Amino acid sequence: MTTRSFAKHIAQTVSILGCAALAGCTAVQVKPVDPAAQMLHVCIQENPKVTIDDFVPVLREGFDRHAISTEVFSGTRPDRCEYILTYTARRSWDMATYLSQAALRIEKDGRIVASADYHLRGKGGLSLMKWQGTKAKMDPVIDELLSGAPSSARVAAK
């Protein structure tokens, strides 16, 4: 192997490894809302352990996009709440904090009817995408979670 072909081989290997390190770092698993559900309103149970300031506003905007109203409560569940959303979210740090994990669960009568999990594998590794904001990361997850909701069909028709 000549020096020139060896250098080319090294450059190709570095390029492939770089692409692998920058891509495919996010794992998302979603069990969407059943199309038969008549989900028009969701109550979000406040989680004081989540310290990501814009997390709940991003959730509420996402549900609004699908014509599902929301309210946030802490403590006892209000009687008017048929669907309850619980959530967790964690930040990681690499020169700045960023959302690295989130879980959403929608329950009805104490039974999980829809769920979504967002996870940066290896806390994002070398990917620059890990520093994207909460909205950029969670909007696609929320949209997939609510893709089966009847209200989503109304929104898509507009």
Condensed summary:
The protein is built from four helices and six strands, in the order αββαββββαα. The chain is α/β, with parallel strands linked by helices and 158 residues long.
List keywords for this structure.
158 residues, six-stranded mixed beta sheet, 4 helices, alpha/beta, 32% helix, 31% strand
Account of the 3D structure:
- The chain has 158 residues and is α/β, with parallel strands linked by helices.
- 32% of the residues lie in helices and 31% in strands.
- The protein has 4 helices and 6 strands.
- It has a 6-stranded mixed sheet with strand order 1-6-5-4-2-3, with helices on one face.
- Helix 2 links the parallel strand 2 (41-45) and strand 3 (69-73).
- Helix 2 (55-65) packs across helix 3 (134-145).
- The N and C termini lie far apart (62 Å).
Detail the topology: elements first, then pairings.
Elements: H1 3-22, E1 26-31, E2 41-45, H2 55-65, E3 69-73, E4 83-93, E5 97-108, E6 111-120, H3 134-145, H4 150-157
Helix pairs in contact: 2-3
Beta-sheet strand percentage?
25-35%
Contiguous runs where pLDDT drops below 50 for at least 5 residues: 11-24
Q: Taking strands numbered 1, 2, ... along the chain, how are they ordered across the largest sheet?
A: 1-6-5-4-2-3
Q: How many helices?
A: 4
Which structural category fits the helices and strands? Answer: alpha/beta
- The amount of helix comes to 25-40%
State the shape.
Answer: globular
